[in-house]
Amino acid sequence: MTFPYLDETQEVDEAARMQAGGSFMALTDGVVHYELGGPKHGNPVVFVHGFSTPFFIFDKTFEFLADCGFRVLRYDLFGRGFSDRPLVRYDIRLFVRQLKELLDALGLKPVSLVGLSMGGAVSAAFIERYPQYVVRHVLIDPSGGKRVELPFFVKALKIPLFGELVFGLFGGAAALKGMAADKISPQAVEALQEQYKVQMKFKGFKRALLSTIRSGMLDSFYETYVRVGRLEKPTLLFWGRQDKTLPFAQSECIRRAIPHAEFHIVEDCGHIPHYEKPEVVNPILLEFLSR
Questions:
Q1: Residues 167, 206 contacting (CB under 8 angstroms)
Q2: 77 band by pLDDT with thresholds 50, 70 and 90
Q3: Which of 11, 57, 134, 225 has the fewest CB atoms within 10 Å distance of its CB?
Q4: pTM to 2 decimals?
Q5: Are 235 and 137 spatial neighbours (Cβ–Cβ below 8 Å)?
Q6: How does strand 30-37 pair with strand 262-266?
């Protein structure tokens, strides 16, 4: 029996999916929500989002690269957006398996892989396991360079039942408040929050986030980045100078692990530079992917 989060009132069912747009595919662990854009024969670029914000966080970059002739894929990690919330451990194995099965089903490989925040750890772990699938790697303020320093009340979420209760009372509000830390306009923050709220009404959302924390997805993936660095795949690294979610100092860990990475600091910018400063990030990204 799962913990009853009273604000989660709907199932991710066919009726919900009809409103979502995009496409759906059944994989081993459940149905995944994804979107393909750009010409069918364009070079494929795949986006992996972060801890809780679904694939709409790539709106501006997805559309830009599609218009530039790339075949672009974005999808919702299990537990987020309009993808299923299976009763499983939300660990790195789940997310790597989801990505591999989706790429295999769509016949997309090799690809350029873009990982944002926790998606950076997922993309690195994927490359370590399946290096033949990826020709270029892009990291945007990635997590996993070191263990995320969690406040005491977040660490307490790992305590059975207590964590469920606290997450039920405060988890949703904390996630929405965190978006306001990024250096975008109040209007843009409000729009992001309204998009984010849609997924919060579906049963299993908070359970999935809590399992993600408990399954080590906010721990260090430094050794994974080191092993990926040794593969010497072309790598592009962005970091917002004013990132409050993953402070700029953490970029040193990633640069040490992947010393050949091309590093771009995005000034006056927080945790989502591709969204906050697309006029800066998109041209750099386009040039890198076009080489």
A1: yes
A2: very high
A3: 11
A4: 0.93
A5: yes
A6: unpaired
